[in-house]
Design goal:
The chain is an alpha/beta fold. Helix content is about 45%, strand content about 15%. It has helices at about 5-10, 25-35, 50-60, 75-85, 105-110, 120-130, 150-160, 175-185, 195, 205-215, 235-245, 250-260, 260-270, 290-310; strands at about 15, 40, 65-70, 90-95, 110-115, 135, 145, 165-170, 190, 220-225, 230-235. The chain has an 8-stranded parallel beta sheet. The protein has a 3-stranded antiparallel beta sheet with strand order 7-11-10, with helices on one face. The chain is globular, with a radius of gyration of 18 Å.
C-alpha cells in the first residue's frame, strides 16, 4: 500500500485517525500509530498544558510517527502550535481556518502540514499556502462540516483532478470497502473518525460509544447551518436545535444554545440528552467497540476482500 501519503508520513498503511475533540488523546493516537497508521492527538479540546502532557505520553509510548490536529479558529491556536513545536512534533493537521496562518512557520521548522478542506476552492488555497497534502472531508463526516455540503464521493475526484499534492479522503469511511472506494476515486489515504471514536482506546465516554453502536442509517442530522454546520446523532438537544433553526432563531440565539460545552457534555461526560453527540453517517455500519488492533486487522481484511471481489 505504498504511495505518496505513506511516504510523506512514513507510515505502513495510508490510514489516518482523525483528531477528534474529547476522543483523540494519547492512548488512541498511540494505538493507531503502533498499528502502522497515523494517530493524531485532537488539540481542539485541550489547553496548551494538557496538550503538552498528551504529546509527551505519546512520545513515550510509540516510536512510530504521530501528529496533532489543531483547529485554526481557536483563540489559543498559536499556543498549541508553540507547544507542539517545543515537543518536536513534525506532523500537523490543521482545520477550521486559513491554512496561511501557520503553514510557513511550520515548514520553516521542518514539519509536514496537511489541511482539511470541504471544497475545491479551499483545497487550492491549501496547496498555494504550501501544504504537503489535503484531507477532503465530505458532508457525511461527523462534527463540523463545510457549508456547501459536498459529499465525499463528489469532492475527492475533483480535488484529485485539480491538485498536484496528494489527497486524503474523509467522511463516511468506516470499513475496508470504504477505503477501497476512496482510493479508487484517486485518494492516497483515508482519514477515519467515528469508527475510531468507538474503540477501547478512545477517550470518549462509554455512553457516547454505545450510542454510536446503537445508531442506524437515519440517526444523524445536520444542525446549526447558520453558525457552522454540525453532524450529530439525533437526541433531544439535536432535535431542539433543528426546531430552533426552523423557527428562525438568529445567530446570537443559536450560539447561546450551542455555547454551553455541549461537545464536552455529550462526548466526554456521556450526556445523551443535552450533549452534542458528533458522529458521521457511517454509524449504521458500526456494531461494536473493538480494540484499535482488532479494528486495524479487520479494516485490512475487508479491504483485501473487497479488492479480490472486484477482480472476480
Amino acid at each position: 500500500m505504498k504511495n505518496r501519503i505513506t511516504e510523506l508520513l512514513n507510515i505502513k498503511y495510508p490510514i489516518i485517525q482523525a483528531g477528534m475533540v474529547w476522543v483523540s488523546g494519547w492512548k488512541l493516537a498511540t494505538a493507531v500509530s503502533n498499528c502502522g497508521g497515523l494517530g493524531l492527538i485532537g488539540a481542539g479540546s485541550m489547553k496548551p498544558e494538557l496538550l503538552k502532557e498528551h504529546l509527551q505520553k505519546c512520545k513515550a509510548a510509540t516510536t512510530n510517527p504521530f501528529g496533532v490536529n489543531i483547529p485554526l479558529l481557536r483563540k489559543d491556536a498559536g499556543e498549541l502550535v508553540k507547544v507542539s513545536l517545543n515537543e518536536d512534533v513534525k506532523i500537523f493537521f490543521t482545520s477550521a481556518g486559513n491554512p496561511n496562518t501557520f503553514t510557513s512557520l511550520l515548514k520553516e521548522n521542518g514539519c509536514i502540514v496537511v489541511h482539511i478542506v470541504a471544497n475545491l476552492k479551499y483545497g487550492l488555497k491549501a496547496q498555494e499556502a504550501g501544504c504537503d497534502a489535503v484531507v477532503g472531508e465530505g458532508v457525511e463526516a461527523g462534527g463540523h462540516n463545510g457549508s456547501d455540503q459536498i459529499t465525499t464521493f463528489c469532492l475527492i475526484p475533483q480535488l484529485v483532478d485539480k491538485l498536484h499534492i496528494p489527497v486524503i479522503a474523509a467522511g463516511g469511511i468506516v470499513d475496508g470497502r470504504g477505503m477501497l472506494a476512496a482510493l479508487s476515486l484517486g485518494a492516497e489515504g483515508v482519514q477515519i473518525g467515528t469508527r475510531f471514536a468507538a474503540t477501547s482506546e478512545s477517550s470518549a465516554h462509554e455512553n457516547y460509544k454505545q450510542e454510536i453502536v446503537k445508531a442506524g442509517d437515519q440517526d444523524t442530522t445536520l444542525a446549526f447551518k447558520k453558525i457552522g454546520l454540525v453532524r450529530m446523532i439525533k437526541n433531544d438537544f439535536a432535535i431542539r436545535a433543528m426546531k430552533a433553526e426552523n423557527e428562525g432563531w438568529n445567530e446570537a440565539q443559536l450560539r447561546e444554545l450551542l455555547s454551553t460545552k455541549r461537545e464536552h457534555a455529550g462526548i466526554f461526560e456521556g450526556d445523551l440528552v443535552e450533549g452534542e453527540l458528533e458522529a458521521g453517517q457511517g454509524v449504521g455500519l458500526i456494531n461494536d467497540i473493538p480494540t484499535v488492533k482488532d479494528l486495524f486487522e479487520r479494516l485490512l481484511k475487508e479491504y483485501n476482500l473487497a479488492t479480490e471481489n472486484l477482480r472476480k
